[in-house]
Amino acid sequence: MEDDSGAIFPSEIGDEFRTYEDFLDSQIKPLDLYYLQDQEVARQLVELGHKGSSLEREEFETMKAAAEASRLASKSQQKKLANAGKELKDNFLRAMAEREEANRSGEMTSIIFIRDRNSHGQEISGYIDYSHRLKTEDFEPYFSGQKRLLPRPTDLSFYSWKTRVAKYNTSLNYEVITENQSGLLFENKEDRKILNVDPEASPGDSSVRIPVQSDLYVHVVFYDHILRKP
């Protein structure tokens, strides 16, 4: 309840004590009650500062209110799911929605392969670190249909079928391995496991490959990697 200086913190008041009397009782030792034979007298001695930490009732109530306000503020600041309340009409949007919470919490790190045409009609494809993009941009426009999720030159990989130029980038969750006979590989930064995106090969330990039929894109595949927590 206290640091080395004897200070009492609001968060500890809110977590440990329901009432001021509970706080006073926490400062009373069994030996005190043995000699005083009266719990109310023992409480008064604590309140006056003769035993344990001195904290008046008004100070206690103020600190408890501050702790509750902090708890409520923290709860209200928790980011709601971007798909909440959205009408998801396509399999791709529903697949993203099913994975959103797990990718935000860190239980899963999904990679999305998308092949389609950009706003200029040019065919592009690439691998997107879904968890990374969720943390760095607002996904509500994607779930509401205002924007289309497409690979960018800053994603894990990006390929322009017009220029034949490929780009590769490390993300928050993955290292890209390009020099490999098996083709493109992604190494998860947390558990160091390899995710293989070759459709003819196994995706790897703790990973699954799930193609999704979509009316929005030419080709979509989800690679879900489950993180094993110690």
From TrEMBL:
What are the record keywords, sorted?
A: Cytoplasm, Nucleus
Superkingdom in the source lineage: Eukaryota
Pfam assignment, any one? DUF4464
Quote the subcellular location field of this record: Cytoplasm; Nucleus
Q: Which GO terms describe its cellular component?
A: cytoplasm; nucleus
The keyword Nucleus appears for this protein: yes
State what this protein does: May be involved in spermatogenesis.
- List the protein's name: Cilia- and flagella-associated protein 299
